[in-house]
Amino acid sequence: MSEQSSTRTTTSPPHPPQRLALLHAIVRGLFSIATTILLYLISLGPIPQHVGFVMDGNRRYARGLGKEVSEGHGEGFAALKRTLEICLRLRIRAVSVYAFAIDNFNRSENEVSTLMRLAKDRLAELCQHGALLEEYGVQIKFVGQTSLFPEDVQQALREMEEMTKDHKNGVLNICAPYASRDEITTAIRYTVKDNNSNTEQITSTQIFDRLGTSQSVLHVDSGLFKRPEESGNLDILVRTSNVKRLSDFMMWQASEDTQLHFVNTFWPEFGLSDMIPILLGWQQKQWVKQLGWD
């Protein structure tokens, strides 16, 4: 007499790595939902038109973790993408970042070449078809003495600008190689040249309108700004790594109404948790101004 054995199919619980991956997916999903809700609530209040960032602390961040400086710069580009997406989701129309100072050419040849390579590769990713700048209809503009870059880098920058030239919803100003004093003197030079045969007095407005950052903002659809006449001015200027100085960045654009924030976070770690208090503080200032309490 033979016994017929029957087999039963049982579902075994996920292995620890699978459970961990599932947990990570759930946490990411919840964080994404919370972020969307939080940004929506902030968008119900006044929104700044123009925000600037001094992206400081890449090297100190890397050294503190025992990493190569190049890794710090690489993670800094990731922070730029992360922060830019927050700004674009809130419909902040102009974002200006201090990417490379003219004086940075004094750094080691290896670090400068690494920055050039990262700029060509990582910034190009933002401009590609279907990428962040196309999704939000934002131009990329390079402000500064770009002729100081190697020819292959200059060509890459021109190609990026060409790819996004028809976008009118906003602008990302990459200030590199940049110095505010150089931007101002260049604007004065062009203003004097254009007014060489004009007997009218040169005004500060004429010079301001010829600043590289101001000219790029003029390409944005002015109807998208609540205060088009002030779109070239900075509403908020953020500097990371707790260094409290402007370092020759947008000194003219930082008007008396610009809100300055010096945060402790190194730039590669900068994100939503740093940005939210800054935006809420700016909104509070606008509400106080509207109520006439300032």
Automatic annotation (TrEMBL):
GO terms for biological process: polyprenol biosynthetic process. Its EC number is 2.5.1.-. Gene3D superfamilies: Decaprenyl diphosphate synthase-like. CDD domains: Cis_IPPS. GO terms for cellular component: dehydrodolichyl diphosphate synthase complex; endoplasmic reticulum; lipid droplet; membrane. The chain crosses the membrane at residues 21-42. Keywords: Magnesium, Membrane, Transferase, Transmembrane, Transmembrane helix. Coiled coil: none annotated. One of its GO terms (molecular function) is ditrans,polycis-polyprenyl diphosphate synthase [(2E,6E)-farnesyl diphosphate specific] activity. Pfam families: Prenyltransf. It is an enzyme of class 2 (transferase). Belongs to the UPP synthase family. This is Alkyl transferase.
